[in-house]
Automatic annotation (TrEMBL):
Superkingdom assignment: Eukaryota
Residue stretches making up the Reverse transcriptase zinc-binding domain: 7-49
Originating organism: Panstrongylus lignarius
Protein name, as recorded: Reverse transcriptase zinc-binding domain-containing protein
């Protein structure tokens, strides 16, 4: 339940949130070379490192923001 609440609120153990709390020196994603902030949205929907997992789970490598509302919570 804690993980799901973190995903829904953005208060999860991702670099952007940890950086706001002063627990890490950078808010950038350490999983890819794109120099972008690691947010819950980036982690779940955009990060190239997890594209194959998204494809197996959702049938596509990238998830546009507008498709998030149609996802089942059990799949997240």
């Amino acid at each position: 339940m804690r993980v799901l609440v973190g995903v829904l609120t953005g208060h999860a153990l991702v670099a952007s949130h940890l950086h706001k709390m002063g627990r890490t020196s950078s808010s950038l994603c350490q999983n890819c070379d794109e120099e972008v902030r690691e947010t819950v949205y980036h982690y779940l929907c955009q990060c190239p490192r997890f594209a194959s997992i998204r494809f197996c789970t959702f049938g596509r490598g990238l998830l546009p923001r507008e498709t998030l509302g149609s996802l089942e919570l059990k799949d997240i």
